Amino acid sequence: MMRMGEENIKIGESKLRKLVEEIFQKYGLSEEEASIVTDTLVVANLRGVDTHGVVLVDKYVQRLQAGSLNPQPNIKKTVDIGAVAMVDGDNGLGQLIGHKAMQLAVEKAKVHGVGVVAINNSNHFGTAAYFSMLAAAEGCIGIAASNASPRLAPWGGITPTYGNNPWSVAVPAEPFPIVLDIANSVVAFSKILTARAKGESVPEEWALDVNGRKTTDAHLAEILLPFGGHKGYGIAFMIEVLTSILSNASIGKDVLKYDNLQAGQNIGHFFLALDISKFASKEEFNERLEFFIKQIRESELAENTVKIYLPGEIEFENSVNRKQDGITLPKKVVETLLAYSKNY
């Protein structure tokens, strides 16, 4: 199913998956690897996180063409001691490396109660929620985090020194996992790019210009600010410790942008899985979780609020709707995918 519009195209999930899988196979990935990378991207689109969906295929293919991404990495453990492991991603796609590393974290959690995996020599891995949800699907609480190319200034500074360093926590629940997935900037830079394209201004709390001054001009906004001031800065700092310093990945200003065509990013990730069954029975845990959710749901609503959502609930509803109705993508994105599919 593919329906054309003036600016957007609605495409069915299965058709989109097939198209993207074929593209990645044409550019060197195995059938299994292409399926994994495609799944991470399409799941993001289904959840409504379109900035981390198939729009990323363009830059990934450019990097595969340029040789700055390894299509067939030898992903290997360099440390493997009890509940702890370190993984070298061999400059592969971050999605492949992350998928394998979280599987390893879950395997260790099933034995030791906890599994912790630090990763280096990786690249942009898309949406952090995908990996935390892998753990949740196996009855574990999952934590996934990554460092990123520098876009934020430290609290009180004006020099882009570290990335927005996304992180996610997923908790198994029914009918959907409870999922927190956030970065540490006030907004994603993609929102500034959208404002530029529409000729709109931005709130001055979003970003600084290149001279370190707050600005409402989307065309001047370049340096993102951390959410919550010193709190967001502090969280991003600690994510950097877990993802790059612990794993010997590139640190802070040394991380290359994900669309760099010259070399791998040497991104660092941090994955943790906690096997709930080692702490309580599934029934006991679910009962306590439902008790807390009931308290949240019963809260008196604020003015102009019709419902209190749990973390990840809006994305779950998006996924249900888009699986049924199709995924709406910018026409330009679909045209790019079709071009890669036909013109290899």
Would you give an account of this structure?
By secondary structure, the chain is an alpha+beta fold. It folds into 3 domains: 2-66 and 323-343, Hypothetical Oxidoreductase Yiak, Chain: A, domain 1, CATH 1.10.1530; 76-278, 2-Layer Sandwich (Ribosomal Protein S8, Chain: A, domain 1), CATH 3.30.1370; 282-318. Helix 1 packs across helix 2, helix 1 (13-26) packs across helix 10 (331-343) and helix 4 (94-112) runs parallel beside helix 5. It has 10 helices and 12 strands. Helix content is 40%, strand content 18%. The two termini are 24 Å apart. 44% of the residues are buried. The chain has helices spanning 13-26, 31-46, 57-66, 94-112, 128-136, 189-198, 230-245, 282-297, 313-325, 331-343, and strands at 2-4, 8-11, 76-81, 84-88, 114-122, 140-146, 167-171, 178-182, 207-208, 223-224, 267-275, 327-330.
